[in-house]
């Protein structure tokens, strides 16, 4: 009879994990525990204030979001990874934001949808572990289940949650995606990351809508990323002028963060800009038909908001373009009779802004 394989040395396995992660394109890997009591209280308070807006899914699943072992029974450790996404060769953000006839798309969404890419790499990482030690208990995640990924990543030493509520790494900034493997392997824990925001409040001061209502507290209902992506209905009129030309997401708080001077461009071809979305003309985007939207944005994170919400956002940006511009007004009039009441209402608002209502 062959002897049973020896149990893997946890420290050696953790070192091998880091090597495998680097080979798969991850720029960081950390191992954390499952005690999220502090994060759970923060989430409870945030939800009680209604700061999640229409994101009802944030309140679902009870304690499973903050208690990994309840979501995946047997979980002892969470392996957190990061993958950089800052697109090499994309148009510089500030000149686009300062050009009102162009549309600004959050840099994470310029290329292909990250969810599938990160999950595929995580699965490959799990397969690599299984090849070394045999079957083990695990489940992979990338923004795909009730997971508090930023507190988990902080516990795993990948960075700290900044005042803008994004995760920051002192050696790599904040332009990265996160992913997790919940596992029953008793791996050695990494030291949690400490905070290094100090007295800086650049992100708070730059936010166009004042959504960062206190250090480390975001009111999503005022956040441009929420308004242009998650919010399904009309964008509140008082906030529309503040959106400027931001048509999908907002990066201002990260653009001014001094730690992002250490950010590195991604080596992932999938995250390179597609269809000129790094500096597109608003008029061109508004004229995309629903079929063109679906075809051109196939495989993009943007596609999930749908053509109607896309046009709603662009109509607001066109309303914020230089007043009375003939091409802008003509474009808005082409879409004034939209079959979508949501789009038609925002187009009417934009035309009024140009004195052409």
UniProtKB/TrEMBL annotation:
GO biological process, one term: tRNA queuosine(34) biosynthetic process
Record-annotated 4Fe-4S ferredoxin-type domain positions: 185-217
Cofactor, how bound (note): Binds 2 [4Fe-4S] clusters per monomer.
Molecular functions per Gene Ontology: 4 iron, 4 sulfur cluster binding; cobalamin binding; epoxyqueuosine reductase activity; metal ion binding
Catalytic reactions on record: epoxyqueuosine(34) in tRNA + AH2 = queuosine(34) in tRNA + A + H2O
Listed GO CC annotations: cytoplasm
Assigned EC number: 1.17.99.6
UniProt binding sites for [4Fe-4S] cluster 2: 207, 223, 250, 253
Residues annotated to bind cob(II)alamin: 65, 143, 167, 178, 225, 250-251
Keyword field: 4Fe-4S, Cobalamin, Cobalt, Cytoplasm, Iron, Iron-sulfur, Metal-binding, Oxidoreductase, Queuosine biosynthesis, tRNA processing
Location(s) in or outside the cell: Cytoplasm
CC cofactor: cob(II)alamin; [4Fe-4S] cluster
Catalytic residue list: 143 (proton donor)
Pathways per UniProt: tRNA modification; tRNA-queuosine biosynthesis
A Pfam cross-reference name: Fer4_16
InterPro entries with a match to the protein in the record: 4Fe4S_Fe-S-bd (IPR017896), 4Fe4S_Fe_S_CS (IPR017900), QueG (IPR004453), QueG_DUF1730 (IPR013542)
Annotated binding of [4Fe-4S] cluster 1, by residue: 197, 200, 203, 257
Enzyme class: oxidoreductase
Chief localization: cytoplasm
Superkingdom in the source lineage: Bacteria
Functional summary from the UniProt entry: Catalyzes the conversion of epoxyqueuosine (oQ) to queuosine (Q), which is a hypermodified base found in the wobble positions of tRNA(Asp), tRNA(Asn), tRNA(His) and tRNA(Tyr).
Cross-referenced PANTHER family: EPOXYQUEUOSINE REDUCTASE
Subunit-structure text: Monomer.
Stated family: Belongs to the QueG family.
Protein name: Epoxyqueuosine reductase
